[in-house]
């Protein structure tokens, strides 16, 4: 009878598992009066090595231009 021991599993992905194309990258931005920093945040997210598939942006009631920038 074969048994499964997780401790014996390799922690290194095999060559077939190293292809990350089937994963999605989601960035979540939560801001409150962050209009000053949002352009820099968006630029940094856009320049990531792995492209972002989707962005979820939440504003918590800003009174500055944050909602318009999002």
Task: Describe the fold and architecture.
The protein is of the alpha+beta class and 70 residues long. It contains two helices and two strands, in the order βαβα. The protein has helices spanning 38-46, 66-69, and strands at residues 26-31, 54-59. It has a two-stranded parallel ribbon with strand order 1-2. The mean pLDDT is 82.
How does the overall form come out from the CA principal axes? Answer: elongated
Mean pLDDT: 82
Strand order of the largest sheet: 1-2
By DSSP (H or I, 4+ residues per run), the number of helices equals 2
Q: Quick one: biggest sheet?
A: 2 strands, parallel
Q: What is the CA-based Rg, rounded? A: 20 Å
Low-confidence sequence ranges: none
Question: Could you give the order of the helices and strands?
Answer: EHEH
Number of strands: 2
**What's the end-to-end separation, in Å?**
57 Å
Helix content: 10-25%
What would you call the structural class?
alpha+beta
User: What portion of residues belong to β-strands?
Assistant: 15-25%
Give the structure's gist in a few sentences.
The chain is 19% helix and 17% strand.
Q: How are the SSEs ordered, and which strands pair?
A:
Elements: E1 26-31, H1 38-46, E2 54-59, H2 66-69
Parallel strand pairs: 1-2
């Amino acid at each position: 009878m074969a048994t499964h021991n997780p401790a014996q599993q390799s922690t290194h992905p095999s060559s077939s598992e190293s292809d990350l194309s089937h994963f999605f990258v989601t960035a979540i931005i939560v801001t409150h009066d962050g209009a000053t920093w949002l352009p820099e945040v968006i630029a940094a997210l856009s320049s990531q090595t792995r492209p972002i598939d989707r962005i979820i942006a939440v504003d918590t009631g800003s009174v500055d231009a944050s909602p318009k920038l999002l």
